[in-house]
Specification:
Number of strands: 16
Distance between the termini: 163 Å
Radius of gyration: 55 Å
Largest sheet: 6 strands, mixed
CATH class of the largest domain: Mainly Beta
Low-confidence stretches: 1-27, 254-284
Helix content: under 10%
CATH topology of the largest domain: Jelly Rolls
CATH architecture of the largest domain: Sandwich
CATH superfamily of the largest domain: Galactose-binding domain-like
Number of domains: 2
Shape: rod-shaped
Order of helices and strands: EEEEEEEEEEEEEEEE
Structural class: mainly beta
Strand order of the largest sheet: 1-11-8-13-6-5
Length: 288
């Protein structure tokens, strides 16, 4: 692990929203723990053009107004190994110019989960002056930024920049900016500018890191089962009562008791037989 020099920390929380559709070629895998390729600048450097050697995993950016009047000229890039300008390890990235000012820095695009909170931090030290041992006025400003849409245009309105810091010369400061990823990748930027075209306008960058806090998943709604309706028992039909038959009235004997002679009509005798009747023809003779 790299040793840290003492310094002061500047931190800004910003959010960027606008999409800027730029593309960048694929980079090697990020350095473990910091989500950036060559975050500590201890890896190899590649030669881009004359006097421009850039750390692998990083890309240079600058503003060239094309006027050629010693202001806003294209900066130079070098691997720095002087211990006084290395924050940790053995190497830092130097961006500088001589007798000219510049606006420039580095950038790197990184894949992250959409909606993540991302924080970019990096250490910087600056020097400006017309003599290698005598500092000029404090007119060297540095800052850091994140494009939450993954664009690579440092001038895009989508870039969330920290405030500019005017550090004391030869004093390491840590710059920081935080935002929310609006896409599945973000781009981090370092940047510096000067007010005067001094003989030495230099800045050094070291020990960068991108921390990523993934978004909290939206809880899945709990499914409440629909209650099954309780079946209602079919009522048993009420049986219709069987009508009680009307009893047949017992006929009242009309002619007296059995064996009693009631009437004699031309020899026809009707005799009551208890609950019934016996009707017949009987010839009766009177006893003499």
């Amino acid at each position: 692990m790299k040793m840290r020099n003492r310094g002061w920390i500047i931190s800004t929380l910003v959010s960027g929203l606008t999409l800027w559709p730029w593309a960048l070629q694929a980079a090697p895998p990020p350095q473990a723990g910091c989500n950036l390729v060559n975050a500590d600048f201890e890896g190899d450097f590649r030669h881009i053009t004359d006097y421009r050697d850039v750390a692998n995993g990083w890309e240079p950016w600058w503003f060239d107004d094309g006027v050629g009047d010693a202001y806003n000229e294209v900066p130079l890039y070098d691997a720095e190994r002087a211990p006084s300008h290395v924050h940790g390890g053995n190497t830092s990235q130097k961006v500088h110019n001589s007798w000219r000012t510049f606006q420039g820095g580095l950038y790197q695009r990184v894949g992250v989960p959409r909606g993540s909170q991302v924080t970019f931090t990096v250490w910087a030290v600056v020097w400006s002056g017309s003599d290698s041992g005598v500092a000029g006025e404090l007119n060297h400003l540095v800052r850091v930024g994140i494009d939450p849409t993954g664009g690579t245009n440092w001038q895009a309105s989508s870039v969330a920049w920290s405030g500019e810091v005017r550090p004391a010369y030869d004093q390491w400061v840590q710059l920081s900016v935080t935002t929310i990823a609006q896409a599945d990748q973000v781009t981090v930027f370092t940047g510096g500018r000067q007010g005067n075209p001094d003989q030495y306008n230099s800045e050094w960058w070291d020990d960068a890191c991108l921390t990523v806090v993934a978004p909290t998943p939206t809880p899945t709604p709990t499914h409440t089962p629909t209650p099954t309706p309780t079946s209602t028992a079919t009522p048993t039909p009420t049986s219709t009562p069987t009508p009680t038959p009307t009893p047949t009235p017992t006929p009242v004997p009309l002619f007296g008791q059995v064996g009693e002679t009631l009437y004699n009509f031309s020899g026809i005798l009707v005799i009551g037989l208890g609950v019934g009747l016996a009707v017949g023809v009987l010839t009766v003779r009177r006893a003499s």
